[in-house]
């Protein structure tokens, strides 16, 4: 981080108990029950929270890119899939698939916007070189 960077936001969440605990998210202290992935317990897991955060940040970047190009988009949609893996050496790592639907533009334009958003999205930049991210442009909204 550079010394002259302007701080825009600091988000804070408090978690107790890890994957089987609870989280209080943000300034409104939204309470979320946490559960280990691959269980049927009520709640959410960290990968689902990361998928939601990444998808929402990505759409903000997409809208910024479109605005800079003079395009007014109908509301786009992103579905994030965050997968947790374990290597043969028992190391854990993540991968991401972002499926993005950009209504009202042709596929090449949508692909260009998605690629440009990926280059500037803070989440994309944060995981670059650490997490495999696959981008998919959808022809219809995800169900």
Automatic annotation (TrEMBL):
Gene3D superfamilies: 3.30.300.20. Belongs to the OsmC/Ohr family. This is Ohr family peroxiredoxin. NCBIfam families: organ_hyd_perox. It comes from Deinococcus navajonensis.
